[in-house]
Design a protein that fits this description.
Elements (H helix, E strand, L loop, with lengths): L1 H4 L6 E8 L4 H4 L6 H9 L13 E2 L1 H5 L8 E10 L5 E9 L3 E2 L14 H5 L3 E3 L27 E3 L2 E7 L8 H16 L5 E6 L6 H13 L4 E4 L8 H12 L11 H24 L8 H8 L3 H10 L1 H38 L3 H4 L4 H9 L4 H4 E2 L20 E2 L6 H33 L9 H5 L6 H5 L2 H29 L1 H4 L10 H11 L3 H4 L5 H16 L13 H23 L8 E7 L4 H11 L5 E4 L2 E10 L6 H5 L8 E6 L2 H21 L10 E5 L10 H15 L3 E2 L12 H22 L13 E7 L7 H9 L4 E3 L7 E8 L2 E11 H10 L4 E7 L3 H12 L7 E7 L3 H5 L1 H16 L3 E6 L12 H9 L1 H20 L43 E3 L5 E3 L37 H9 L39 E5 L6 E5 L8 H5 L2 H7 L14 H14 L5 H12 L31 H23 L33 H13 L13 H13 L12 H13 L11 H8 L4 H13 L3 H18 L2 H4 L3 H13 L6 H4 ...
Parallel strand pairs: 1-4, 1-8, 2-5, 8-9, 9-10, 11-12, 13-15, 13-16, 16-17, 17-18, 19-22, 19-23, 23-24, 24-25
Antiparallel strand pairs: 3-4, 6-7, 14-15, 20-21, 21-22, 26-27, 28-29
Helix pairs in contact: 9-11, 9-12, 11-12, 12-16, 16-19, 19-23, 19-32, 21-40, 24-29, 27-28, 43-45, 44-45, 46-47, 46-52, 50-52
């Protein structure tokens, strides 16, 4: 049972490989290939195939377990799978004959038979015989696989007879064939299958093979298999064929011819080689090693197949070749990089054509090696050539190996470089020539296209030489230059016209009228016209300039890093730090100083005499002073010494002070010159900056009786020099002394030196010993213009070179402190150095005792900025004008400099200011003494300036406490003017203004119910002064106004009347007649672009928030003519009496004819295109605009058209003459208006200053049946409702005008623009929306329907009135109707959020009705209906659902609009407290009498 279940063992065969064997004599130098055939069959892998097997062995090896004293080898077994799927095991035996390596005779073994006998044996036996692998195995069996011959014996089943068909090695083929024949005879006796293996067929001799085949054909069933062990061809075939002969069950063996088998084998090898090479190609780093790569690829089938076929050695060789190829490729790449880099290296080292043009290559190499940058471009290697060094691996080192330059390629690159320089030189010359050609063409303007110019240069030689790209590049460069120059000149022109821009407050927004005025003035300038083709850029520059003017910061300064504020901070930070450190090092031990170094300066031996006197009073050079002993080191220097400075300051002697002694005018003059020389030289050589700060002391020597009469003169002169030099003066004590010098003088001088040293230490002490900023005696502001052509060091050197200069309070980076003796005391002066744009805020808001205004005499813009700034400075503040140029010779040689310096000096003369000049090439003018007189003048006027400032602050505080008027721009400037009413007062008014200064009481801001600020916009009565401080109100016809009940809103129109009413009226009282054109508006706030009310329109009650209870307080206007009781109770009359007889400060522009005429000229130029009649109309039109007004002289107000200029007799005329002129002019204007009234049509001025194909177009052109609402309106409404429906004061608070313009401009360019992406405020979008309707050719509500709306609003019954209005709305044009419905619906939604945005339907109607209805405010008849029309719009907003969506009528409080207008519009309510207005004001009669509580709040 068990035997049946046992799996059958695979058949096993033993094959004996035999052939010619024996000694070298028998077989030749090499064998027939038996061992190689066995090796290839048993171990077919290439790595296990050994081509050399020796039969010459030592006795030891022969006796080893592998040979085992036998003449046969056991090669092991091979398991084969037959075609039928049955495995069989084949044991391979090789019969050979081993030769003794000593005797070269066959070894003796147990079997002594000859080889022919032994080879034919079928039974072999050898106990523990090991498998043979290779010759190296012998003696080292333990290092190889040890496998024993099975059971120590084998039965041979077949023979493989090997015949070598190669040429052989010292062997005859016939002898081999004879041996084989004998061997075959013995084999045939065994009856075992035999196959002949023709070995070494790869070296086959053809006729040998034929003889073998002939031999085999003569034998029965003898097959010949052509084999090659080297190439593994038919090796397995011969063994397989023998097995088939031994196993009868197998088919007949199929013998493949050698050539066919060889081709098949080689194809297999080639395919495997290709696959392996592709694998190797994946390696890209030539640093890779075979070990690393083989380990990585060892499991890859293609790798294994190749290793099996060709072996590791070949695989490694293939890999090595690939690595070498990679390396050579890398070297070639690096070489190419070096060659490509050579031109750049040559450009760096050999860029001068004149230097290398005639040099040979070897000379050029030597020249390059001498260059300092040679090491940056090239590297000289220790070993060469470079491609065999490790430099090829230094990828980050881009330097070129110098030995590469020895190649022909490098030399060729050099030659090309030289040729390139020659051609480039020619090209550059032609480009420059073409550039000069362009510069000669005068008509080329900035922004002109190349195509317009090209035709004029077609025949130019340079143009023909250079390429089209070069010509365009040259023209582009030329354009950039002329455009940049034009822009710079345009910017300079804007600064030259500074008076045109600096007439509004900071953070203001110029109106369209103001922009028109600016364009009107600038358009006359050639520099404006030069940018005609770059109008957008010009507009951008202008807007940028305007933006900077009204929002100036050093970060946005148009001069960039040349901003004066930046440069001053840098210089002060650097200089004051060095100053402090230097003093600290010099006086570090001043608190406990023991040794005092004194330098004594004198003439005619006086210095030595003083030194001797001090030594006489000393003991061993030790001097007792105030209980302390000081060691004195005295260095007297006489006037004759040529080494004044070297004696004064050496490394071993650094004086703490200098005694300057004199006893005559000559010696005093010498001292003054010497000190000046010392300071000048110290400043020039900069050996030690603080040499110039050395404390000097002037000592007057005692006189003999004969010369004592000159003592008072010397004393006076000495004191003057001391004041000039800012040093102490020690006089001769009273009494009679025999000596020239008194002990008291010496002690006083020593104390002064010690105090000076102590002061210098205190200044730089890290302890907080610096006085507080508030302790400065004087505050001076020095102003300079950004970008002026002089160094900041020049204008600051008078301060920084002073020994009394120190840093200001921490945080004041632009200030310094000076300690100067002014008069008899030392004063502490704070100098703040600012740019003009930063000084504007200081001028308006801070206390300043004086201004030092610096300008460059080389730059008109600098003078223009100075004029603009000076015009607005109060004329009580002293001013020092400083012109800066290179030298005094400029005044005589350069006309432009002479003109500007003359103008500056002329202005200084007109305003009684100081004028000086600083010269950059002069040292004298850098001394602090330049400003000594100015500081004295400032100190003299200090109290007056501070009293004026405090008075202004007090008035401001009074206004602010009432929560009605906010701070004035200058921090408390009075908003009214007064003159003494004494008839004996003969003080003349300022020469260029009969008004003095501020007369207006118009607040710029007000508070809403929540305490937020809202802009207040007064009536457009006078466009140049309606909203500005420092202005005079125009004469207004007085009209009494009765009060109206239940008014809860503040009407700014009343402010004009208050403005006119402040001040004492004429002494003769007049009865005020009622007006017939009084507006009934009670609006609490007017938006900037809404109702343009007629002159004289006022209300009588203000509504202001009460901060404590958050409720409204009614303020009644109760101006009476002789109400002085309240004044006395509040102390106001007392305060006014103190200033009785004083004229309130005016502006410098009213004191200087130059400044005044300049300001007036802008007004004339802006209105020069209008006739006399048109000028008046234009003025009125401008008054209706939103322009906030420029600070021009009140006499230029459009209400009183200026005709006489500065010499107009109106300035000095009496009151009657003024009245007559006013009546005459008014009559003339009325007559002119009557004549033009019939033909005149109302065309509101457009607010745009650019061309648009959308805005200002008829509404019908902007809509379609599919989109009945203009796209711009939709975008604005969507934006407002999405982002700002709850914005407080929506449609009432004006947005930024620049943003409004930008919104429309951007929409003009791209209708798809998103407002959300523009970063604009809701108020700006709301303003742009209103501007859209304001720009329409016809109002949204047609003029033809206005009378019907007025009549309908008079219907008393509410329901009937609403239905009538609804019918009128239906008469609208369909387009107007759709848009009107859309807008009213939107406003209704806004009013629904009134709790948050405070915009009720009433407030919205105030803001919107003029925009929707476009009334003609010049028509007096129309003014009586303004309130009615406003209430109509309010009704539309409230009843929106009823009018447009068939909704129900809402119950609302009935508007006053439906009531019929009263017959007498003045008598609207019972008067509570009548408002009595004064008669028309005359400037000369404005008095300082003012009620203590003019608004009736207190």
């Amino acid at each position: 049972m068990m035997a049946k279940n046992k799996e059958p063992r695979p058949p096993s065969y033993a094959i004996s490989v035999i052939g010619l064997s024996g000694t070298e004599k028998d077989k030749g130098n090499c064998g027939v290939g038996k061992s190689c055939l066995c090796n290839r069959f048993v171990r077919s892998k290439a790595d296990e195939y050994y081509p050399e097997h020796t039969s010459v062995l030592s006795t030891i090896d022969f006796g080893g377990r592998v040979v085992n004293n036998d003449h046969f080898l056991y090669w092991g077994d091979v398991t084969q799978c037959g075609e039928d799927g049955i495995d069989c095991k084949i044991h391979v035996i090789e019969q050979t004959e081993f030769i003794d390596d000593q005797t070269f005779l066959p070894h003796r073994s147990t079997n002594l038979q000859p080889y022919i006998k032994r080879a034919a044996a079928t039974k072999l036996q050898s106990a523990e015989k090991l498998m043979y692998i290779c010759t190296d195995q012998l003696g080292l069996e333990q290092d190889f696989e040890q496998k024993q011959m099975p059971e120590g014996k084998l039965n041979i089943d077949g023979f493989l007879l090997c015949i070598d068909v190669s040429q052989g090695c010292n062997r005859k083929f016939d002898d081999q064939l004879k041996f084989v024949n004998n061997l075959y005879v013995q084999l045939s006796k065994s009856k075992k299958p035999i196959i002949i293996a023709a070995t070494k067929c790869d070296e086959c001799v053809e006729h040998y093979l034929r003889e073998v085949q002939a031999f085999a054909s003569n034998k029965k069933n003898l097959l010949v298999v052509e084999t090659s062990a080297r190439f593994n061809v038919n090796v397995e075939t011969c063994f397989t064929a023998l097995v088939q002969m031994m196993d009868k069950t197998r088919g007949k063996p199929k013998i493949i011819p050698y050539l066919d088998a060889y081709k098949t084998q080689r194809q297999l090898v080639v395919t495997s080689t290709d696959k392996f090479e592709k694998l190797v190609q994946t390696v890209r780093d030539y640093h890779a090693t075979w070990k690393t790569v083989s380990n990585k690829l060892k499991n890859h089938p293609d790798y294994e197949e190749y290793i099996n076929l060709e072996g590791t050695k070949k695989a490694k060789n293939t890999f090595s070749k690939h690595i070498e190829q990679l390396k050579q490729e890398h070297i070639r790449k690096r070489r190419d990089e070096y060659i490509n880099t050579l031109p750049r290296a040559f450009n760096t080292l050999l860029s001068n054509l004149e230097e290398i043009e005639h040099l040979s290559w070897s000379e050029a190499l030597k020249l390059m090696e001498k260059r300092p940058d040679f090491q940056l471009c090239f590297v000289v290697l220790e070993k060469t050539p470079w491609d065999e060094t490790d430099h090829i691996d230094k990828v980050n080192d881009r330097r070129i190996p110098f030995d590469l330059l020895s190649t022909l390629e490098a030399e060729k690159v050099y030659q090309n470089h030289v040729q390139h320089l020659i051609s480039e030189k020619r090209r550059v010359e032609m480009k420059e020539k073409f550039k000069k050609t362009l510069e000669k063409i005068q008509f080329i303007s900035p922004g002109q296209p190349w195509e317009e110019v090209m035709c004029f240069v077609m025949e130019d030689e340079a143009f023909k030489y250079i390429t089209e790209a070069d010509s365009r590049e040259v023209y582009s460069r030329h354009q950039r230059e002329i455009v940049e120059k034009a822009k710079e000149e345009f910017q300079e022109m804007l600064f030259e016209h500074s008076e045109l821009f600096y007439d509004l407050d900071l953070n203001a927004t110029p109106s369209s009228d103001k922009m028109s005025e600016i364009h009107a003035v600038l358009s006359e300038e050639p520099r404006y016209k030069a940018l005609q083709k770059l109008a957008p850029d010009r507009e951008s520059l202008l807007l940028k300039h305007i933006g900077f003017v009204y929002h100036p910061t050093k970060e946005t300064c148009l001069s960039g890093q040349n901003c004066m504020d930046i440069k001053v901070e840098q210089l002060l930070g650097r200089s004051l730090l060095q100053l402090d450190h230097g003093r600290l090092n010099l006086y570090h031990d001043s608190a406990n100083i023991d040794k005092v170094n004194i330098f004594i300066l004198g003439k005619d031996g006086l210095a030595q005499e003083l030194a001797n006197e001090i030594r006489t009073q000393s003991t061993d050079d030790e001097y007792a002073l105030d209980g302390k002993i000081y060691e004195l080191d005295l260095r007297p220097v006489d006037a004759k010494s040529p080494y004044l400075l070297s004696h004064l300051w050496t490394s071993a002697f650094k004086p703490h002070g200098c005694f300057c002694v004199f006893n005559s005018i000559e010696s005093l003059t010498f001292i003054g010159d010497s000190i000046t020389k010392i300071r000048t030289e110290a400043s020039q050589i900069r050996r030690d900056k603080y040499m110039a700060s050395l404390p000097f002391t002037l000592i007057l020597a005692n006189q003999r009786d004969s010369a004592s009469k000159h003592l008072p003169i010397l004393r006076h002169q000495g004191q003057q020099l001391a004041n000039k030099l800012q040093c102490p003066f020690i006089d001769v004590p009273a009494g009679t002394y025999p000596r020239k010098f008194n002990e008291a003088q010496i002690k006083q001088a020593l104390r002064g030196v010690l105090e000076a040293v102590k002061h210098n230490f205190d200044v730089v002490s890290p302890m907080p010993t610096i006085k507080d900023l508030s302790e400065a005696d004087l505050r001076i502001v020095m102003c300079a213009m950004c970008g002026d052509p002089f160094s900041v060091d020049l204008i600051l050197s008078p301060f920084l070179d002073s020994h009394s200069c120190s840093a200001a309070q921490a945080g004041q980076n632009n200030s310094l402190m000076l300690d100067k003796i002014i008069g008899e005391k030392r004063r502490r002066i704070q100098i703040t150095i600012l740019s003009y744009h930063s000084s504007i805020g200081v001028r308006k808001d801070e206390l300043v005792h004086g201004y030092i205004l610096v300008y460059s005499a080389k730059r008109k813009a600098s003078m223009g900025m100075l004029r603009a700034f000076l015009s607005e400075v109060q004329d009580t503040i002293p001013v020092q004008l400083v012109a800066v140029t290179d030298s005094q010779a400029d005044f005589f040689e350069i006309e432009a400099i002479k003109e500007l310096m003359t103008e500056g000096e002329h202005i200084a003369t007109e305003i009684t200011a100081k004028f000086t000049a600083l010269y950059s090439l002069s040292q004298y003018h850098r001394q602090t003494e330049v400003f000594t007189l100015f500081f004295s003048d400032v100190l003299e006027k200090k109290n007056m300036i501070e009293n004026s400032y405090m008075s202004d602050s007090t008035r401001e505080a009074t206004h602010t406490s009432e929560d009605v008027f906010l701070h004035s721009p200058r921090g408390g400037a009075l908003t009214y003017n007064y003159y003494p009413d004494s008839e004996d007062d003969t003080e003349a008014p300022p020469p260029y203004s009969p008004m003095g200064d501020d007369v207006q009481l118009i607040p710029k801001d007000r508070f809403d119910l929540e305490g937020n600020e809202y802009p207040v916009h007064s009536t457009p009565l006078n466009c140049h002064d309606h909203e500005r401080n420092h202005k005079v109100p125009p004469p207004i016809k007085p009209k009494p106004v009765a009060l109206k009940p239940n008014v809860k809103k503040l009407d700014p129109n009343l402010l004009k009347t208050i403005e006119a009413g402040i001040g004492k009226p004429r002494k003769t009282r007049t009865t005020l007649a009622p007006s017939d054109d009084l507006d009934q508006s009670d609006n609490y706030a007017e938006p900037i672009d809404t109702i343009f009310k007629h002159r004289g329109v006022t209300d009588d009650i203000y509504a202001i928030p009460d901060d404590s209870q958050n409720r409204m307080i009614k303020i009644r206007n109760s101006f009476t003519i002789n109400n002085t009781q309240g004044d006395e109770e509040n102390g106001f009359a007392d305060r006014m009496s103190k200033t009785h007889g004083e004229r309130r400060p005016s502006k410098y522009k009213y004191k200087s004819k130059t400044l005044f005429i300049k300001a007036k000229s802008y007004y004339r130029r802006a209105h020069s295109d209008a006739s006399d009649d048109e000028a008046f109309t234009t003025s009125k039109t401008k008054r209706k605009g939103r322009h906030r007004g420029s600070e021009e002289d009140p006499l230029l107000s459009p209400v009183e058209t200026w005709k006489g200029g500065i010499d107009n007799p109106a300035i000095t005329s009496d009151q009657e003459l003024d009245d007559k002129k006013m009546k005459k002019k008014t009559q003339k204007v009325k007559e002119d208006k009557k004549q033009k009234k019939k033909t005149k049509t109302f065309n509101p001025p457009t607010r745009r200053n650019w061309e648009s194909n959308y805005f200002g177009m008829p509404l019908q052109d902007l809509v379609t049946p599919e989109k009945p609402i203009p796209l711009f309106v939709e975008k604005c409404v969507d934006f407002i409702e999405d982002t700002g429906l709850c914005t407080e004061g929506l449609y009432r608070v004006s947005g930024n005008k620049t943003d409004q313009d930008n919104i429309q401009k951007q929409f003009d360019q791209d209708h798809n623009i998103s407002l959300e992406s523009m970063d604009v405020t809701v108020n700006a979008v709301a303003g742009a929306l209103k501007a859209f309707f304001a720009d329409l050719p016809d109002p949204l509500i047609p003029y033809s329907l206005h009378p019907e709306l007025v009549e309908a609003s008079k219907i008393l019954d509410k329901t009937e009135r609403l239905y009538e209005l609804k019918e009128i709305v239906k008469k609208f044009h369909p387009v107007n109707y759709d848009v009107f419905r859309y807008v009213i619906t939107h406003l209704n939604r806004v009013s629904q959020q009134s709790r948050t945005n405070l915009m009720t339907a009433d407030n919205l109607s105030i803001c919107f009705w003029p925009t929707l209805m476009r009334p003609d405010f010049e028509n007096r008849e129309f003014l009586s209906t303004t309130k009615i029309l406003q209430s109509v719009i309010e009704t539309f907003i409230q009843q929106c659902q009823f009018f447009f969506y068939s909704g129900e009528i809402l119950e609302t409080s009935d508007s006053v609009a439906h009531q019929p207008p009263p017959s007498n519009p003045v008598q609207m309510v019972d008067p509570i407290i009548p408002l009595q207005l004064p008669p028309p004001l005359q400037p000369q009669l404005i008095q300082p009498q003012l009620q203590a509580d003019p608004l009736g709040i207190i």
